[in-house]
């Protein structure tokens, strides 16, 4: 029971990485795939064994959003880069976050940590040692527990969303729901989110309501 929430999240990450992305890239997107509810994503297993059901194709050209005015949104491109698909899965689990990335009137710089950064965390992003301290090992069981995990995951996701794009070098900013002032700068040829010194590896998408930056480590993880 304890792992229900976790496995749903992981399942959605696996489904999106292995099955849905190739579909999206191949323009075969049935309408329900855009849903934020991972349960509606049709499962298509490859009888030949594990791995993508469809070989990964070339990245598709920017495709018009089904939503507003034909502009491509962050929500359309979050799932494109497989090296950040764990984070993209978390965003899909948090409705307010995915709504923002689908909102043409709100720009966002998404700081998407590499899968490897999330995998090496000592705890899952929705686990908070204070919850275990206060509530014991069953902290994430039952309906309250799921709500708690969801709230923690929302904080984690929002700590990686800057409500500003373009985000100029040296400009102070704050992530959504976060009090810490941060900025970025180039130091010895490396772009760093400061003051934590998190390396910005690449800017992978620039679309009408913002950019997706891949970062090497997670933010705000005590
Ligand atoms: C939002 O982002 C777009 C695309 O980068 C940019 O043209 C526009 O000026 C930005 N809007 C604001 C309010 O920053």
UniProtKB/TrEMBL annotation:
PANTHER family associated with the record: FAS1 DOMAIN-CONTAINING PROTEIN YDR262W
The reply on keyword Signal is yes
Region (Disordered) location: 28-75
Amino acid composition bias (Pro residues), ranges on this chain: 49-62
Tell me the leader sequence span: 1-16
Q: What is this protein called?
A: FAS1 domain-containing protein
Against InterPro entries, the record matches this protein to: FAS1_dom_sf, Mug57-like
Q: Does the keyword Signal apply?
A: yes
């Amino acid at each position: 029971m304890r792992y229900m929430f976790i496995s749903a999240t992981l399942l959605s990450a696996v489904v999106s990485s292995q099955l849905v992305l190739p579909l999206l890239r191949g323009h075969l997107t049935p309408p329900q795939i855009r849903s934020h509810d991972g349960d509606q994503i049709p499962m298509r297993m490859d009888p030949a064994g594990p791995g993508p059901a469809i070989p990964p194709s070339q990245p598709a050209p920017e495709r018009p959003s089904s939503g507003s005015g034909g502009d491509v949104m962050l929500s359309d491109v979050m799932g494109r880069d497989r090296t950040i698909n764990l984070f993209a899965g978390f965003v899909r689990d948090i409705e307010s976050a995915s709504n923002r990335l689908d909102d043409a009137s709100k720009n966002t710089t998404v700081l998407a940590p590499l899968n490897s950064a999330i995998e090496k965390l000592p705890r899952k992003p929705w686990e908070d040692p204070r919850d275990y301290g206060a509530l014991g090992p069953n902290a994430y069981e039952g309906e309250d527990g799921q709500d708690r995990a969801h709230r923690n995951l929302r904080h984690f996701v929002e700590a990686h969303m800057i409500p500003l794009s373009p985000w100029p070098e040296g400009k102070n900013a704050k992530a959504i729901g976060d009090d810490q002032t941060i900025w970025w700068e180039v130091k010895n040829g490396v772009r760093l989110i400061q003051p934590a010194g998190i390396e910005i590896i690449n800017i992978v998408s620039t679309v009408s309501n913002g950019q997706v930056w891949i970062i090497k480590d997670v933010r705000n993880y005590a």
